[in-house]
Design goal:
The structure is a single chain. The protein is built from 14 helices and 17 strands. A hairpin with a 2-residue loop joins strand 1 and strand 2. The protein has 2 domains: 355 residues, 3-Layer(aba) Sandwich (Rossmann fold), CATH 3.40.50; 55 residues, Phenylalanyl-tRNA Synthetase, Chain B, domain 1, CATH 3.30.56.70. Helix content is 33%, strand content 23%. The radius of gyration is 22 Å and the shape is globular. The protein is of the alpha/beta class and 425 residues long. Helix 1 packs across helix 2, helix 4 runs parallel beside helix 5 and helix 10 runs antiparallel to helix 11. The strands form 5 sheets. The protein has a 7-stranded mixed sheet with strand order 5-4-3-6-7-9-8, with helices on both faces. Strands 11-10-14 form a 3-stranded antiparallel sheet. The chain binds S-adenosylmethionine.
């Protein structure tokens, strides 16, 4: 028995009912369509230009990751996409119908029932010229493509944790290609089970108020570490926390030398369980800045030791991480997404709202402070957001909202300044 037609975007699908379909993920699919519309346009232009696809030379130029003319020349064949975990095929069908410049999309699933749905839905949507159904274990399929016929785009949208798919995915993607990854195991990533987080992601999560950003950064460091094994590295274009999941969009580049910069993009986090303040300790630092920037060649210089007791409240400190502590987004790319925003996407208002907040986020400042937690610790009423923002600005520091939590602030002010402001309220 097929359940009724499900209409989303330009796709109309049916499912036998046992195959995964989650209407709440429409936002995730809409956002991915917008990202791929913009990415494919510029990626095709890059491929057609004589320049070799190169990642940014230092983190400061990740903002200008694409310096190509507005209008790319279309590649004769367009880009190739693998949706490795496709369920009903809805996402692939939407990509095929709503994004131009696509050569081929493989809609793969390990479940036979799902592949039956995918085949039927492709036919009913008249999209068999672009979307090809495939029945395989996603990891095996990606390993088969790690040397030849790599994909320009790979989309991983699993139940829960994506880590078992990362080793093959980072190898099966073309140089400069785009990897889209969802993780829905928020309990693990947000500190409920730090040991499990270490086994799955190679990082210890923390029960900290800014756990959503920790989650995004744990996922990014995990993808980077998989990429590094094959002399590859990532450049995040957009990293989102929404509803019950995180979703990251990263470019994957090749370059053994650039991989030496990885330690300078990672940090451990010391977190006070009493007042929720945090301190970052980078795993590596860069020698010089500018043209001759190099990762250090010797071990880490002594870092200021972090006391076991918090200097603000004498609470106990816990160590988490390592997390990705480099930028979460390419603001240049976010700007292009905003310019290409289109109301044919059902959730475009929500997308636009989130992207506007992101475009103003302090992209070089990891993590954030939750105001209610700060005021709870001091037993005072939570001050209005605007007042806190102006106090931080008046003290000479930068401050912004974060799309991950409405009542939080990102700031480059040291924790001591934030506490002083809160105490003097
Ligand atoms: N991307 C889909 C969407 O937007 O509607 C939803 C995908 S659903 C969350 C996850 C799918 O992954 C399920 O259909 C499941 O059968 C499939 N799956 C799980 N393990 C797999 C594997 N090793 N290889 C391929 N597919 C797998």
């Amino acid at each position: 028995i097929l359940i009724e037609d499900i209409i989303e975007g330009c796709a109309k699908i049916k499912t036998a009912g046992k195959v995964f379909y989650n209407p709440v993920q429409e936002f995730n699919r809409d956002l991915s369509i917008l990202v791929l519309r913009v990415f494919s346009k510029y990626f095709i232009a890059e491929k057609n230009s004589s320049k070799r696809v190169k990642g940014p030379t230092s983190y400061s130029d990740s903002e200008n990751f694409i310096n190509l003319p507005e209008k790319g020349i279309r590649l004769e064949n367009g880009i190739s996409i693998l949706e490795a975990l496709s369920a009903t095929g809805l996402r692939s069908i939407r990509y095929g119908k709503e994004i131009s410049g696509i050569k081929q999309i493989i809609a793969n699933d390990i479940s036979l029932k799902a592949v039956e749905d995918i085949k039927r839905n492709i036919e009913n949507n008249n999209i068999s010229n672009i979307v090809i159904p495939n029945h395989d274990d996603a990891t095996m399929l990606m390993y088969k493509h790690r040397k030849e016929n790599r994909f320009d785009v790979i989309d991983l949208d699993p139940y829960g944790c994506p880590s078992i798919f990362l080793d093959s995915a980072v190898q099966a993607i073309t140089d400069g290609g785009l990897l889209l990854v969802t993780a829905t195991d928020m309990a693990v990533l947000a500190g409920n089970s730090p040991e499990t987080c270490y086994t799955k992601y190679g990082s210890i999560s923390l029960r900290i108020k800014c756990c959503h950003e920790m989650a995004v950064r744990i996922l990014l460091q995990c993808i980077e570490s998989h990429a590094n094994r094959y002399s590859r590295y990532i450049v995040p274009l957009l990293s989102i926390s929404a509803d019950f999941y995180v979703r990251v969009f990263v470019r994957v580049y090749t370059g053994a030398h650039k991989c030496k910069f990885t330690t300078s993009k990672l940090s451990n986090v010391y977190h006070c369980t009493g007042c929720d303040s945090f301190t970052l300790q980078p795993l590596g630092i860069l020698k010089n800045q500018g043209e001759n920037t190099n990762p250090i060649k010797f071990g880490l210089p002594a870092v200021p030791s972090v006391p076991q007791k918090c200097e603000h409240c004498s609470g106990t400190q816990h160590m988490g991480g390592p997390i990705w502590s480099a930028p979460l987004h390419s603001l240049d790319f976010v700007q292009k997404l905003l310019e290409n925003m289109s109301n044919d996407l059902g959730t475009f208002r929500r997308i636009e709202g989130i992207l506007r907040v992101i475009s103003e986020e302090l992209n070089d400042v990891p993590l954030y402070y939750a105001l209610e937690k700060l005021s709870g610790t001091l037993h005072v009423e939570t001050p209005p957001m605007l007042s806190i923002r102006s106090a931080v600005l008046n003290a000479g520091y930068r401050v912004s909202y974060t799309h991950m939590n409405k009542t939080s602030i990102k700031t480059d002010a040291p924790a001591k300044i934030v506490w002083d402001i809160m105490r003097s309220w």
